[in-house]
Amino acid sequence: MRRTITAGALTCLALAALTACGGGDDKKDSAAPSAALDGRGPVTFVTGKDRSGNLQKQIDGWNSAHPKEQVRVVELPDEPNDQRQQMIQNAQTKSDAYGVLNLDVVWTAEFAANRWLTPLPKDQVDLSKMLPATVTTGQYRDNLYAVPSTSDAGMLYYRKDLLDKAGISAPPKTYAEMWADCDKVKALPEGKGVDCYFTEVNKTESLTISAVEAIEAQGGSILDASGKPTVNTPQAKAGIEFLAGARKDRMPKEAVTLDTEGGRRYFQGGKLLFQRQWPYQYAMANATDGSSKVAGKFAVAPLPGQNGPGVANLGGHNLAISAFAKNKATALDFIKYLTGEQAQRANLMATSQAPTVASLYDDPELTKKFPYLPVLKQAISTAKPRPVVVKYGDVTAAIQGSVYDAVNGGKPVDQALTDLQGKLTTLTAGQ
Known about the structure:
Elements: H1 12-20, E1 43-47, H2 54-65, E2 71-75, H3 80-92, E3 100-104, H4 108-113, H5 132-136, E4 139-140, E5 143-144, E6 147-153, E7 155-159, H6 160-165, H7 175-186, E8 195-198, H8 205-217, H9 234-249, H10 260-268, E9 272-277, H11 281-285, E10 298-301, E11 314-321, H12 328-339, H13 341-351, H14 364-369, H15 373-382, H16 392-407, H17 413-427
Parallel strand pairs: 1-2, 1-3, 8-9
Antiparallel strand pairs: 3-11, 4-5, 6-11, 7-9, 7-10
Helix pairs in contact: 8-9, 8-16, 16-17
Region (Disordered): 24-43
Signal peptide: 1-22
Keywords: Signal, Transport
């Protein structure tokens, strides 16, 4: 689920271009930290919460082999918005407290344009084994700023036991099929008290993801290929109307308060038939320690859409080096270690998080343990990103506010999208 361009490397013209696209600030110092990847010694690794415990195991492995270059984990809150804000606050003070950053894939442009990341040498990082879609997320203006660590794409979790009981042999491919399946299951004694569907509709980053997937499934987009807003279209309207209708008639009444982890617990508690969720949930929902009521009872399929398979959002996390970090040579080596094939394989086995190394999706041992891997690989290859913009924080806040109003009845869908079109036009002007 659940992922600083230096002044020494820029001409005045390039700095002006960054300012024009929204990443610059006239009040910024003309001097920026050196991009030189030198310095050996301790490093801090800043990331969201590790609920699996596997991250610390991998870092313990690094620390055992590098006694003079120890890595210490700094865990940030669960909510991506809070993680991003804390990283930005650290960068704005030019603090060296944060070394390696575990960035959501959609933050690259914002962090790079604001000169908060150290450019990485492409000739020192082997990206050839990674899924092409993941490599793109670490780049900005043809430069590499982050190395793909984990990928992500939304999938449909469903209660296979209940579909089987209702005589349904395959998961739904369309919204209409999904609603029909819900009605059949709810007519069963076993279906009493089971809600139909859940995707996140609370006012967090996950609502931006839900909006991307709903609009793209209707053939629309939030921004077009040139970066211009396109939410004043029939396709965008249809996507948000789907979310609003599902929220009203098919989701649990608690939906507006459930975040990613809340949704996971709801599904694991046996309260959901269908759920849009990230790969990380698979291992936790299949746990046999008593924490999950649905272990062995569910399966995973591609997201449904209006007239056929839907569209997943491209998620995941990339590892980058703060422009203000010390010991950047150690930081780069640590990134190579944590994004290497061996570490990614171990992480997949322990957490079910999506790797970025392509060959792992075809490994017989892994596909036996995680039969959804072919589905996930296809979802990642066709996934659509959230808006790739320099002012990402403002853009996602605008999307969340307008879509929340539309989905939860605060405004008519038409009015909410008209307002959003105006906000996005202003925020993306000149980039």
